[in-house]
Every structure is written in C-alpha cells, then in structure tokens.
Design goal:
The chain has 3 helices and no strands. With about 60 residues, the chain is mostly helical. It holds the Pfam family TetR_C_43.
Length: about 60
C-alpha cells in the first residue's frame, strides 16, 4: 500500500493535479478515515470523497 501511494502521489505531483505538500501517508490516512467514516453511512461516501479531493487540489 505504501509503495502504491508513493507512485500515485508522485505521478499526481508531476501532472500538477495535487498539492506539492501531500505525502503518501496523507493519502492512506484520508482513505482509511473515509472508509471508517462511511462504514455505517455508505450513502455519504461520494460527497465525503469529493470534499477530500477538493482539499488536495493545488490552489494556484
């Protein structure tokens, strides 16, 4: 999982679609958090995931 997250974050940085301060562990923690948070409320998954993605986009 760590290696996969490293590849995803590196590729996203190179493409300019993720903030430069995002670390692979950040991605894994957020994904875990969303999984736990939506376990009993699966209907909220899409909305919460969209919020997470908006927070990862670069501001410039």
């Amino acid at each position: 999982m760590n290696k996969a997250a490293e590849v995803v974050v590196r590729n996203a940085r190179e493409a300019g679609v993720v903030r430069t301060d995002v670390q692979p562990g950040d991605l894994l923690r957020m994904a875990h958090g969303i999984g736990v948070a939506t376990e009993t409320a699966p209907d909220t998954l899409d909305r919460i995931f969209a919020i997470m993605l908006d927070g990862l986009r670069p501001t410039d």
